[in-house]
Write a structure and sequence with these properties.
Elements lengths: L1 E6 L7 H7 L7 E7 L3 H5 L5 E8 L4 E9 L4 H11 L4 H4 L12 H12 L2
Antiparallel strand pairs: 1-4, 2-3, 3-4
């Protein structure tokens, strides 16, 4: 099992100071899912793990992502693009992942965010 993360910075100390030091004016929220889901289940019978996104509430962009589990390395590049390009969540919904692949995990994360922010 491999843990893969893409983040804009490492946050330590006081959360509010850390958020403001990277230009985030409000506290972000985290969405979390347990894998396997979608195409991950087709990759391996023993697939287990987690995935999470840290989302800035003000800009509605991804600040960080963590993927833990087998065969999830393909998700790192898409997370890096989303973070560095500051792609809004509303735009990410239009980036439909291939089926069946582990990239379907993005849809589950976006679904979790939608449910959390209702």
């Amino acid at each position: 099992m491999v843990k893969i993360s893409a983040t804009t910075t490492t946050i330590s100390g006081s959360a509010s100071r850390a958020y403001s030091s990277i230009g985030v004016s409000s506290s972000p929220h985290t969405v979390y899912i347990a894998t396997p889901t979608g195409g991950v289940m087709l990759l391996r019978d023993d697939a287990t793990g987690t995935a999470q996104l840290v989302i800035d509430d003000e800009t509605n962009t991804v600040l960080g992502a963590t993927f833990v589990g087998p065969d999830l390395a393909e998700l790192l590049h898409s997370a890096t693009i989303a973070i560095t390009a500051k792609v809004p969540i509303d735009v990410l919904w239009h980036a439909v992942p291939s089926y069946p692949t582990a990239s379907e995990l993005w849809l589950r994360l976006l679904d979790s965010d939608r449910e959390a922010t209702r």
